[in-house]
User: What shape does this take?
Amino acid sequence: MTPDRQESFTPLGMTPGRRRAPCVVLVAEDHDDTRMAERIVLEAFGFVVKEARTGLDALAIAQASRPRVVLLDLVLPEIDGPQLARMLRADPTTRDAALLAISASVNPDAREEALNAGCDAFVAKPVPPLVLVRMVRRHVRHDHPSTLVGL
Assistant: This one.
C-alpha cells in the first residue's frame, strides 16, 4: 500500500473522515463458539466487540457501553431476545442502538416477533462472515435508519 493509500484507509468499524473511536457492537449470544466467531470477524474489521452470554448480562453491558449495534440471539437465558429488544428500546441509554436479530429459526413467526419487538433486521443462522459485517456496517453507516431489512 502506498503512503497516499494508507492515509485514506479506514477500518470498516470506523467512520471515514472522522477521528472517532471505533464502533462498539454488543454480541448477545449464549453459544460460546458462535459468539467467539462473531467477535473474531467483527474485530478483524475494526469493530470493538462486547460480549454477553445471557439476556440479563446483555442488558447490563448495553447500558454501560452504549453500543451502536446489538447482535441479538432470539433465544437467550434469563431474558429472551424479543423481551430484551423491548427493554433496550424502552431505555433512553440504549434506545438508539440498531438491534439486529439473529436466529437459528427460519420460522416466519420468529422474524415477525423480532421485528415487532423493535429489532431493525432479522437474519437466519448461520450468518456468513461477510454478510455479518455488511449487515452491521449498513446500520452503522445509516446511523440507525429504523428500517426493517432482512437478509
Remarks:
- The CA atoms of residues 31 and 114 lie 19 Å apart.
- DSSP finds six helices and six strands in the chain.
- Strands lie at 24-28, 48-52, 69-73, 98-103, 121-124, 149-150.
- The longest helix spans residues 32-44.
